[in-house]
Amino acid sequence: MNRAASSTGDVLADAFGRPLRSVRVSVTDRCNLRCQYCMPEDDYAWLPRETLLSFEEINALVGLLAECGVEKVRLTGGEPLLRRDLPTLIRLLRAQPSIHEVALTTNGVLLEEQAQALHDAGLQRVTVSLDTLRPDRFHALTKRDAFDRVLKGIERANAVGLRGLKIDTVVIKGFNDDELAALIEYGKTVNGEVRFIEYMDVGGANDWAGEKVVSMGDILARLERDCGPAAPLPERGSAPARRFQLADGVTFGIIPSTTTPFCAACDRSRLTADGFWYLCLYAKHGLDLREPLRMHDAEAVRERIRSGWRRRVDRGAEERKQLEFTHTRGRLIEIDELRQDPRLEMHARGG
Ligand code: SAM
Ligand code: SF4
Ligand code: SF4
Questions:
Q1: What is the pairing mode between strands 72-76 and 22-26?
Q2: CB 3.0-4.6 Å disulfide test: which of 95, 239, 315, 345 passes with 203?
């Protein structure tokens, strides 16, 4: 039976007994890149500005989520560094005693100018998404000329002492799967651990096709061919990455979201920039926390969080994988549906 989280330390568990531990907060649905696997269109149905949560509102919701068990916050988007004064939000979150970790996932384009302020505000971990070391490929993938800025951003993050630097790479067959060893070499130069992510059919399943996925097994085989044996490291609780160590001590991760989903241990939730709480990356509907928050009804927010999490039966990636056996795996969400609900896209709910 599930028990509500309380000051006595009881754990709020979902229908499968999974605790609520983490929230990814999308601070904006806008982005300055157009990665083809995430946001290939130029224009989207954006969230109306007046619906966006203020930093105080985000902080208040995180506080209520923390009462229900959340201890880790990751700021994401869209591109989170497009949100003005992000360090102010980081300061607010760091002041919450129950929040043990405040992390950021960014595309790095604006990191060079913001790294110092993010560090000063107390950001504890930063992940920069970088899929290729070739400027021509970067442009083909993102439709923007920002490759040098991303590299400078990563260098600056390292130079100002931002800790826990990770480089996340979505591996796409025939596009960047010949760069895996080079990315690990690059990671060494900036003290960053590289994590290879299997291509997922999230959001509008942009351009996704099973043939484009490079599986964890294939990623590992390719790396062992190019870099020598990779020894598996012990798994860390609900962390999605499987980590490995090369003979020279360098570590890297693989996130096998598509071929080996980790739903069974998933303790993550997601908050959109306009205050809808999603219990799975693949969920079609979120719970509106903004409405009770703006009514100043904290108890109603708590109740929505508790009852929502207790009922949670989501295991989106596992269900998608099942479809392969029935050969019905197609687009996750149709274009018409996407136009009607901007929160269905990955960039609205954070990766
Ligand atoms: N804009 C920021 C960035 O790119 O780091 C944060 C938001 S982005 C949606 C978060 C992560 O989701 C990125 O690392 C991105 O590579 C990943 N992502 C987006 N679409 C994906 C897909 N179809 N498959 C796998 N990862 C994806
Ligand atoms: Fe790329 Fe991140 Fe922007 Fe998506 S949100 S288009 S992954 S930079
Ligand atoms: Fe968690 Fe949903 Fe991702 Fe599975 S698909 S790991 S339940 S967010």
A1: parallel
A2: 345
Q: How far apart are CA 183 and CA 197, in angstroms?
A: 13
Query: Is pTM, for the whole model, over 0.90?
Result: yes
- Tell me 35's DSSP state: -
Question: DSSP assignment, residue 213?
Answer: B
- Could you tell me the distance, in angstroms and rounded to a whole number, from the CA of residue 148 to the centre of ligand 3? 33
| Residues 141-182: tens digit of each pLDDT | 999 999 999 999 999 999 999 989 999 999 999 999 999 999
Give 31 Cα–ligand 2 centroid separation in angstroms. 6
Q: For residue 89, report the distance from its CA to the centre of ligand 2, in Å.
A: 21
Token pair for residue 71? 């201890």
Cβ-contact 29, 276 below 8 angstroms: no
- In short, whether 277's Cβ falls inside 6 Å of ligand 3 is no
Nearest residue to 279 via CA among 253, 240, 318, 309: 309
278 CB near ligand 3 (under 6 Å): no
User: How is residue 144 written in tokens?
Assistant: 């923007």
Indicate the burial class of 63 (C-beta count within 10 angstroms; 0-12, 13-18, 19 or more).
middle
**Tokens standing for residue 140:** 């083909």
Joined tokens for residue 230:
């990779």
Q: Is the pLDDT of residue 348 over 80?
A: no
Of all ligands present, the nearest one to the C-alpha of 282 is 3
